[in-house]
Amino acid sequence: MAESPTGKSVPEFDPTRAFDLTDRVAIVTGGSRGLGRAIAFGLARAGCDVVIASRDLASCRTTADEITAETGRKTLAHSFHVGRWDSIDELVDTVYSHFGRVDVLVNNAGMSPLYDSLDTVTETLFDKVVGVNLKGPFRLAALVGTRMAEGDGGSIINISSAGSVHPRPDILPYAAAKAGLNAVTIGMAHAFGPTVRSNAIMAGTFLTDVSNSWDMDAFNRRAQGFAAKRGGQPDEIVGAALYLASSASSFTTGSILTVDGGHP
C-alpha cells in the first residue's frame, strides 16, 4: 500500500489488474470493420465477451466467429440500424437477454458521405448523418447508461472525430454531429455518474478500408502537417479504448481523449 498526500493508505497501481477485462461484456457498434473491428478484437483479447453490431449481419457474424476462434471469448452478432430508435431498443433488449449485463459500450458506428458543395446537401443526407453520428449514439448510451447505473456501473466510450473541432467545409454535417456527440459524452458523465463513466475518443485520420478509395499521394502531402506525418493504423486506437474501458481510467470521466497523430 502507498500513502496518499492526506496520509491515508491507497492501493498501489497494478497494471495487470487495472487493464484486465475478464468476463466483462462489451457492445461495439460498427464492430465488423475499421476502428470498430480493431477495438472489438482488443476488448476480447483483454477478456471481454463482445457484441458486434452493425447493419451487415453477415460481416458481424464473420467478425464474431473470428474473435471467438482467436480468443475463446463469447460473442454475439446482431444486425441493427443505428439511426432508428426502435432498432436500438431491440439491440439493447437482445443483449441484456443474452448476456444479462453490459459493462462497456463503444459507440463507434458513423458515416460521412461526400457532397459537391454545402448548398447541395439534401435534407435526407443531413438527417441521415445526424441520425447515425448523434441521434443513435445518444439513444443507445441513454438506454445502456441507465441500466449500467441501476446495476454495477460501466463505461461508455463514444468515438468522436477531430472534425468536431476542425470542421472543414467538406465534412460539415458530420463535424456538427460529432461536436454534438462530444457534448452528449460530457452530459452523460454527469447524468450517470459516479458508477458509470462516459468518455469520448476524438479520432483523427485512420487508414481503414474507407481509405482504399483515397488519393493517397494527396493525403500523404496533407499528412505532413500532422505531428506524426502519417495517418493512423486501426490498432493504434485500441490502447485508448482499453484504457477507457478498464478500471485503469477509474477517475477519467466526461473527457474527450484526442488520438489524432497531432492534427494541426
Automatic annotation (TrEMBL):
InterPro entries associated with the record: NAD(P)-bd_dom_sf, Sc_DH/Rdtase_CS, SDR_fam
SUPFAM superfamilies, per the entry: NAD(P)-binding Rossmann-fold domains
Keywords: Oxidoreductase
UniProt-listed Pfam families: adh_short_C2
Record family assignment: Belongs to the short-chain dehydrogenases/reductases (SDR) family.
Protein name (record): NAD(P)-dependent dehydrogenase, short-chain alcohol dehydrogenase family
Lineage: Bacteria, Bacillati, Actinomycetota, Actinomycetes, Mycobacteriales
